[in-house]
Design a protein that fits this description.
The protein has 8 helices and no strands. The chain is an all-alpha fold and about 220 residues long. About 20% of the residues have low confidence.
Length: about 220
């Protein structure tokens, strides 16, 4: 049985996936994961429990950002690791174990989001303006040019970006989180969502424009 997964606080949003000095640590993690994976596939439950402990917090943080609900995220993490455990004999190591579990968890989170959307469509009357889950009006994403790149992201700016991300149309926010926050490749996102790579790139471009527009507004407000 998969051990219970705690609900740690969601980590702050980053605009860029970590790079550089973390490559060596990631390589070590992948090697250690490979050893644990072989032991888990041989039937050693303790090895799989170690894999869960190594990855559950990052998987929880991702799903919490996608679902905006710690309770839903905790359930999805449990579902994802249980599914991974059941599929261990089928996993051939074409990708890292962490990336594999990420895709499983992201897929479960997307299914939950789609269920929410279907439920909302059934419960809400048709017509009228559209609003997201935070009650903000869904409008066209502004096509503004970035002029605040290179500035230091302080707590207030991160808060402004978080708020702008929450107001994105759901399909744009999902792609932004999976690509720019979680660092999944376009191919991994396509495999998770079932959408084409060009469609994902288009949505990500619109999401980035909107978030950079939020940065523009933030500095414009501070200058006024």
């Amino acid at each position: 049985m998969v051990p219970p997964v705690p609900s740690p606080a969601t980590q702050p949003m980053q605009l860029d996936a970590p790079q550089g000095s973390g490559d060596g640590a990631r390589a070590v993690t992948m090697v250690e994961d490979s050893v644990l994976l072989l032991r888990a596939q041989a039937g050693e439950m303790a090895a799989f429990e170690q894999l869960v402990e190594r990855h559950q917090q990052k998987v929880f943080a991702m799903t919490a950002r996608m679902l905006r609900s710690d309770d839903d995220a905790a359930e999805v993490v449990q579902e994802a690791f249980l599914a991974a455990y059941k599929k261990l004999p089928e996993f051939r190591g074409e990708s890292a174990f962490g990336s594999w579990v990420y895709r499983i968890a992201a897929n479960y989170a997307l299914m939950r989001l789609r269920h929410r959307k279907v439920t909302a469509q059934v419960e809400e009357p048709e017509g009228g303006p559209s609003f997201n889950e935070r009650g903000s009006l869904i409008d066209e994403v502004a096509d503004w040019s970035p002029n605040a790149e290179g500035q230091t992201l302080d707590a207030e700016l991160r808060s402004a970006i978080d708020d702008a991300s929450a107001k994105l149309p759901e399909e744009y926010r999902q792609v932004f989180l999976l690509r720019d926050v979680e660092g999944l490749t376009y191919e991994e996102i396509a495999a998770t969502t079932g959408d084409s790579v060009p469609a994902i790139k288009s949505r990500l471009h619109r999401a980035r424009l909107s978030l950079r527009a939020a940065i523009d507004r933030f500095y414009a407000d501070r200058a006024s």
